[in-house]
Amino acid sequence: MPSPYEHLTAAEELLHKARQLLEEGRHHAAAGHTRLASAYVQAAGARERILPEPPPVPETRSAPLPQWCGNCDGPDLALRWVQVTLPGEERVRMATCPDCHPAAPQYLATQAAAEEPLADHHFA
């Protein structure tokens, strides 16, 4: 589904075409482009009112990235994927690297332990 930005971009393109048509003296065609651009602007406004705000992007990571294992596609976070074939299936799927992706179980367990609140600890 197009975003409000994409609706506004389409409206700008239509208005640009409408200006060209007006310069050519094609007033009826320019009016059609203008009406369609207006509809895109209204759709963008409606989408802005309907869609919730995206969640805020954290400024920094809570923990450093694990070292790259060298077995997945690359050291960048977006490349830490491996090809897997699930038992009983013939098709190959992509999955996060179990060794070095931040969503790997051992990394999540370490992160959860580090974030455990002090109130839950029992002192002797």
Tag the structure with descriptive keywords:
two-stranded antiparallel ribbon; mainly alpha; disordered C terminus; 3 helices; single chain; 124 residues
Give a structural overview.
By secondary structure, the protein is mainly α. The protein is built from 3 helices and 2 strands; from the N terminus they run ααββα. The protein has helices spanning 4-23, 27-50, 105-114; strands at residues 81-84, 93-96. Strands 1-2 form a two-stranded antiparallel sheet. A hairpin with an 8-residue loop joins β1 (81-84) and β2 (93-96). The longest helix is centred in the first third of the chain and has 24 residues, at 27-50. It is elongated and about 65 Å long.
